[in-house]
Amino acid sequence: MISLVDIKNILHDPDPRSTEQLAQNASRLTRQYFGRTITLYAPLYLSNFCSSYCTYCGFHSHNRIKRFKLTADQMHQEMSFLAKQGIENVLLLTGESYQATPLDYLKEAATIAKTHFSNISMEVHPMEEAEYHELFAHGVEGITVYQETYHRKHYKEVHVSGKKADYDYRLGTPERAAKGGIRHISLGILLGLADTAEDLHALYQHLHWMERHYPGVEYSVSFPRLRAIKGTDFAYCDVDDITLVKIICLTRIQFPRVGINLSTRENANLRDHVLELGITRMSAGSNTSVGGYTVTAAEKQDPQFDIKDHRGVQDIITTLKKRNFDPVLTDWRQIKNETL
Predict the structure, then answer these.
(1) What is the mean pLDDT of residues 231-245?
(2) Does the pLDDT at position 277 exceed 90?
(3) pTM of whole model > 0.70?
(4) How far apart are alpha carbons 13 and 15 in whole angstroms?
(5) What does DSSP say about strands 184-188 and 159-161: parallel, antiparallel, or unpaired?
(6) Does an H or E element contain 174, and which?
(7) Would you say 195 and 152 are in contact if contact means Cβ atoms under 8 Å apart?
(8) What is the pLDDT of residue 71?
């Protein structure tokens, strides 16, 4: 395991030759383990109700936005739209409200999603092991849960109230999900909340621990940067593009088989240029508002954060092919055992 000192030295090294060598090593490992495939997925927001006050999020409980959640019919409408774009991997998201989006609501959403997509993941409020087991039984294969920051002091400062303020409960979520049968778990840090090197080192330790104790789970990581919300900066992110590139490359070198996600928080130019370095999963045609694809008019949308890459799914596919990448819309399907 790489030391914190080594991570700091790499991130703060101004020599472009060192960065180039890092990039070459990361690219070689990515091609070795993943070839030139890029898996595409899209987020779909089910609800923006939230009982937690997280200072950096557009959905936080103190923010005055219109709160609503999709009905079953609206879920079908939104999902049908995404499916027609070619999306087969969907990430269903909600705000962190146990009351507005209880387990039954999430199970209903998963059941509906199964009629549209071959792979379903969720990024929702943390739950208990038994609840993850129920979600898995209803077709949920993946869970995304970012610790946001592993620095306890900063965590407390930005998570002011609500269930998300419980650092230890959130920290234990990936393990509970793994015990509940979830097959794919995505971890991450929100760059800009605390010292980047310290958070990255802690994330590596967490991921290494999960791999050692739950080796049957497929893991991926994400490094979203703080972004504006409707043009307003809720918090300042001091992580520049070069540092982000180093983080991606260093992560690939430390974890050759782990997937690395890159969301539409980043602009199209940067997303295209880091494809060679370690990225294996990309969101496409994204919208971060509830009902943002077909239900809510653009001028009335309240996004969780502003996206920077507005290209549609087919535009992303075209770009990938031009760069000699193989866009993967789905790499597996469930086959029913008719003998059971």
Answers:
(1) 75
(2) yes
(3) yes
(4) 6
(5) unpaired
(6) helix 173-179
(7) no
(8) 97
Round to whole Å and give the CA distance between 23 and 6.
16
Q: Dihedral angle at the C-alpha atoms of 18, 20, 23, 27, nearest 10 degrees?
A: -130
- Token output for 89: 């991997």
Distance between CA 327 and CA 166 in Å, rounded? 39
What is the rounded CA–CA span in Å between residue 251 and residue 189? 13
Q: Which residue has the higher pLDDT, 335 or 5?
A: 5
What is the rounded CA–CA span in Å between residue 35 and residue 32? 6
CA-CA distances (angstroms) from residue 218 to 174, 251, 278, 335? Answer: 12, 16, 16, 19
Mean pLDDT of the 171-189 span: 98
Amino acid in the structure at residue 297 = A
CATH H superfamily, domain 4-327: Aldolase class I (3.20.20.70)
| Both structure tokens of 189 | 């840090």
Backbone angles phi, psi at 140, to 5 degrees: -85, 120
Q: Measure CA of the first residue to CA of the last residue in the chain; give whole Å.
A: 44
Determine the average pLDDT of the residues in 149-176.
Answer: 95
Q: Strand 53-54 vs strand 184-188: parallel, antiparallel, or unpaired? A: unpaired
Give the whole-angstrom CA distance, residue 87 versus residue 117.
7
Domain positions in the chain are 4-327
d(CA 109, CA 126): 17
Tens-place pLDDT, residues 242-271:
999 999 999 999 999 999 999 888 999 999
Angle at the Cα of 310 from the Cα atoms of 304 and 311, rounded to 5 degrees: 140
In degrees and rounded to multiples of 5, residue 244 shows phi and psi of -60, -45
DSSP letter at 99 equals: T
Residues 6+ positions from 52 with CB-CB distance below 8 Å: 60, 61, 95, 96, 159, 161, 162, 163, 164, 165
